[in-house]
Amino acid sequence: MSNPHNNDPQPQVLKTDAEPDHKPDIYPLHRQVIREMEEPHDGFAPTPVWLMFIYFALLMWGGYYLATYAGDFSPDIFTDGPLTVASAGTDVAPKVVDPMVLGKRVYNNCTQCHQPDGNGVPGAFPPLNGNERIAGEPHVLAAILLHGLKGPIHVKGESFNGEMPSWSQLSDAEIAGVLTYVRSSWGQSYEAVPTELVTAVRAATSDRSGPYSDAALDALAKQPAPELAKH
């Protein structure tokens, strides 16, 4: 029983060995967290002088390059010939584009396989320089570009078993131009291919759905070229 005459309102608590005499300091435990929560301070770090020199050098070079090679920002400055487009509602006919200029531009799509010098890649892509087909019938060449070619084919005594895709998405003028360019480059000198011939071949072979083979081209070469449309 408790003593009724005890005026101490707080009861006495016995300490045990499990209870420490003082509470642990929590500041060292949270010091890292508090440091990460500090507000950032604005600093001043001047730009290095060497970096400023590089910036100014690049600006000066860019200005010089634009002034030298911009060509007054003409749209045809990077083409081999002027771009001529007839204005709507006028009677002025557009100028005839040089097929060699047009053909060279289109041939840029062929350089990855046939190479800029027309020598192709041995064992992979046949050469156009000295190719027997290039010297042959123009309507056969037009058919190749319109429908593609699938190996094996034989060029200059070497066999190639690749596949050339169809380039029927090109216009008749572009196909005629690139054929004319190929037949007149790298020391070759064969007659130009008229656009009208490509138009006639496109119409005559419109029912064909697959690429030609070497044998099919031989058979096509024995057939006369399709008649050109009369204007």
Can you give a write-up of this model?
- The protein is 36% helix and 4% strand.
- Helix 3 (99-107) crosses helix 6 (172-183) and helix 5 (138-147) crosses helix 7 (195-204).
- It has 231 residues and is mainly alpha-helical.
- A hairpin with a 2-residue loop joins strand 2 and strand 3.
Strands of the largest sheet, in order across it? 1-4
Biggest sheet descriptor: 2 strands, antiparallel
CATH domain fold name of the domain at 99-221: Cytochrome Bc1 Complex, Chain D, domain 2
Low-confidence stretches: none
- Please write the CATH class name of the domain at 99-221: Mainly Alpha
* Helix fraction by DSSP (H/I, runs of at least 4): 25-40%
- The name of the CATH superfamily of the domain at 99-221 reads Cytochrome c-like domain
Radius of gyration: 41 Å
